[in-house]
Amino acid sequence: MDIRGAVDAAVPTNIIAAKAAEVRANLVNWQSYLQSQMISTEDCEFIKKFEKATSEEKQVILTQEGHQCAKTFLNLMAHISKEQTVQYILTLIDDTLQENHQRVNIFFDYAKKTKNTAWSYFLPMLNRQDLFTVHMVSYKKN
Fold first, then answer.
1. Is residue 39 packed enough to be buried (19+ CB in 10 Å), middle (13-18) or exposed (0-12)?
2. 5 CB burial (10 A radius; 0-12, 13-18, 19+)
3. Which of 105, 114, 113, 111 is nearest to 123 (CA)?
4. Is 28 in a helix, a strand, or coil?
5. What is the rounded distance in angstroms from the CA atom of residue 121 to the CA atom of residue 112?
6. Nearest to 64 by CA among 74, 53, 78
7. With b meaning 16 or more CB within 10 Å and e meaning fewer, what string describes 68-92?
8. PANTHER family annotated for this entry (predicted)?
9. Long-range contacts of 41-44 (CB under 8 A, 24+ apart)
């Protein structure tokens, strides 16, 4: 790979990718959400474990705890209103699905078990004012 290819690979080429990189860099203080009782201990422990896991470790977590992963992501989306944190959650979900598109099934399986549709968790997010959040909720990469 020449220097241009290396730069292209390291530097986001569009506004959305740049914003996602910025969002990833701003880690969330999950402990503060736990202390203010906005999230459960179970969700706090899971998200902290998940976000520090390597790609290989995430695959193991998702295989063994897919139901918990979907539950945690969806609980966090539902109980946290701070836009920066919602953006972080949606970016984590997107990163997880981009690594393996089949992982979307954890959300469908969770929704089925809770007698819901996977879309019902994401559709209300389309009404938010932040355009990055709306984009991340509605975006589908092929």
1. buried
2. exposed
3. 111
4. coil
5. 12
6. 53
7. bbbbbbbbbbeebeeeebbbbbbbb
8. V-TYPE PROTON ATPASE SUBUNIT H
9. 42/68, 42/72, 43/71, 43/72, 43/75, 43/76
3-class SS string, 97-137 = HHHCHHHHHHHHHHHHHCCCCCHHHHHHHHHCCCHHHHHHH
Question: Which pTM was predicted?
Answer: 0.85
Q: Which two tokens stand for residue 70?
A: 């979907």
Smallest CA-to-CA distance from 107 within 82, 98, 97 is with 97
Integer Cα distance of 120 and 140 in angstroms: 17
Phi and psi, residue 80, nearest 5°: -115, 130
The gap from C-alpha 82 to its chain's centroid, in whole angstroms, comes to 14
- Residue 25: the pLDDT is 94
Tokens encoding 39: 């999230």
pLDDT digits (tens, 9 = 90+) for 53-104: 999 999 999 999 999 999 999 999 999 999 999 999 999 999 999 999 999 9
Angle at 29 between CA 123 and CA 59, to 5 degrees: 65
Helix, strand, coil tally for the chain in percent (to 5): 75, 0, 25
